[in-house]
Specification:
- Helix content is about 30%, strand content about 25%.
- With about 500 residues, the protein is an alpha+beta fold.
- The strands form four sheets. Strands 13-12-9-10-11-14-19-17-16 form a nine-stranded antiparallel β-sheet, sandwiched between helices. A four-stranded parallel β-sheet has the order 3-2-1-4, sandwiched between helices.
- A hairpin with a 2-residue loop joins strand 12 (about 350-360) and strand 13 (about 365-370).
- Helix 5 crosses helix 6 (about 165-175), helix 6 (about 165-175) runs antiparallel to helix 7 (about 185-190) and helix 7 packs across helix 8.
- The longest helix has 14 residues, at about 80-95.
- The protein starts with 5 loop residues before the first helix and ends with a strand.
- Residues about 5-25, about 80-125 and about 215-220 have low confidence and may be disordered.
């Protein structure tokens, strides 16, 4: 499941009935601390990561979402009435009950039995869920978010792992005086044009740079330009751009509508194509950064900023940029690139909670592509927590509860992983594919999760919505991991007709 599932985002929802009474009601018994969680469609990060972590921390959760029915199905809840009554009773008792959700793919029916995983993965127990209220809300509107939270009683924490909702969650946390991200940092990392402006303003030529003059930082800033909301793409015909360059939505995610263009004519044409799918959308045109693509995963509490790990990412051939596989780099993360990325994150005001940053290596330079002020997705966060051997999701939630992080997280450093994404190469119906499975041999664990059901028909998106399945290969020996992945892929078929 991924947050960029536009099909899920288009499904309607129904609001639960509102009940009121003029009769005096007894004061409710004190319940567990309450986390207000903002979400769009269900994702693996929330279903398998943050909700079970909230249960382990003894939190009750109010989940604010514009897709309540999708979340109810994902957690094995049948309808609004049952959901509300059951979860309110659990909250009063301070108890957390287990829920059920299909691991690794969006649920398609209301019954937990129909949503059970297939193959060896079916033997795994469902993740424990906390006391959970699912509340319909226009979560993209920060004022509506604040209003719904206020109506629910004073919160203990406000959190989201959604790319789209970081600013809203940060504003809500600030309104209630709770720990959270700086809303300005959340906005400038989400808005790719503002990110470039902020980094340029924080460079060594600024009046008060955040670090001493650094020749590596100042040598080669990233060129960028913006096509504002409603601005005619024809105005880009005379743009003095360093072709080839990249055009992307200013607030986009998951490489959706990100494309390499070779000249001015193609730039105008591609922008018009994107605008046809996203009417009026603001776009960013950026210098194409060639080189090895890496990520840096960080976690901070506003005082301490920990580096959790780094991945090397392999992309599909241009003109599109789809992540095909990721390899966890050996610890500690490589220098001098890590320190450069951290310096740029400080310049952006990033340092609270979890963050996923993508950059390109060019010699001894680290050049930022984008900063995603949330956990890395597509199941990489789940496998990272497993390899590090730390309660990663609990640590993330604890920062939003105002608890400091330990100076040493106690993470393992010998783990290796390869994330392999099986992608559709054409539009059509998935006729055959392997079931979910978990195997372990020669020190390598293979965990395969289907992401598309047999019989489903989809167009070709040129994003991670083209993923048919994900293979998580973990161990301590990279050669054995790579060999096991090659053997698995050779032994299975994915047929689209």
């Amino acid at each position: 499941m991924n947050e960029n599932d536009l099909d899920a985002a288009s499904r309607p929802f129904s609001s639960p009935a509102l009940h009121g009474s003029s009769a005096a009601q007894p004061a409710p018994a004190p319940g567990p601390p309450r986390l207000h969680l903002l979400a769009l469609n269900p994702t693996d990060s929330v279903t398998e990561g943050f909700l079970p972590a909230a249960a382990r921390l003894g939190l009750a959760v109010t989940l604010l979402t514009d897709q309540p029915d999708a979340h109810a199905r994902a957690y094995g809840l049948r309808d609004d009435a049952q959901r509300g009554a059951a979860r309110r009773e659990e909250a009063r008792r301070g108890e957390a009950q287990p829920g059920e959700a299909r691991r690794g793919e969006a649920p398609r029916s209301d019954g937990p039995q129909a949503d059970a995983p297939r193959g060896d993965a079916a033997d795994a127990p469902p993740p424990p869920f906390p006391a959970l209220d699912i509340v319909p809300c226009d979560v993209r509107d920060f004022a509506e978010v604040i209003s719904r939270i206020a109506a629910d009683g004073r919160p203990h924490a406000v959190f989201t792992n959604s790319d789209h909702l970081q600013t809203q969650a940060a504003l809500a946390a600030a309104y209630f005086g709770l720990p959270g991200k700086d809303w300005r940092a959340a906005l400038r990392t989400k808005n790719k044009a503002e990110l470039r402006r902020a980094l340029a303003a924080a460079g060594p030529d600024a009046a008060d740079p955040p670090w001493p003059a650094d020749p590596v930082w100042s040598a080669d800033p990233v060129w960028s330009a913006e096509l504002a909301t409603g601005q005619d793409p024809a105005t880009l015909a005379g743009l003095d751009a360093p072709y080839p360059c990249v055009v992307k939505p200013r607030e986009g995610v998951a490489s959706e509508d990100v494309v390499l263009v070779g000249d001015a004519d193609e730039l105008v044409r591609r922008c018009r194509e994107i605008r046809a799918r996203r009417p009026g959308a603001a776009l960013v045109i950026e210098e194409f950064l060639e080189g090895e693509l890496r990520t840096l995963e960080t976690l901070g509490d506003g005082r301490t900023l920990h580096v959790l790990g780094a991945f090397r990412t392999e992309l599909s051939p241009p003109p599109h940029f789809i992540e095909e596989r990721l390899h966890l780099l050996p610890a500690p993360p490589p220098q001098p690139h890590t320190d450069q990325v951290l310096a740029q994150l400080r310049a952006l005001g990033v340092g609270f909670g979890v963050c996923h940053t993508e950059y390109v290596v060019q010699g001894d330079r680290a050049r930022l592509i984008e900063v995603n002020y949330r956990a890395i997705g597509d199941q990489c966060d789940l496998v990272l927590a497993e390899l590090l051997g730390i309660p990663l999701f609990e640590y993330i939630l604890r920062t939003h509860l105002g608890e400091p992080l330990p100076d040493d997280l106690g993470a393992r450093t010998d783990g290796r992983v390869r994330m392999e994404y099986v992608m559709a190469d054409r539009a059509g119906r998935l006729a055959s594919a392997p079931p979910a499975s978990v195997t372990e041999r020669d020190g390598v664990r293979l965990d395969y999760r289907p992401l598309r059901g047999i019989g489903e028909e989809h167009p070709l998106h040129h994003t991670n919505r083209d993923f048919l399945g994900v293979l998580r290969a973990t161990g301590t020996d990279q050669e054995r991991i790579d060999a096991a992945v090659a053997e698995f892929l050779a032994a299975h078929r994915w047929e689209i007709v």
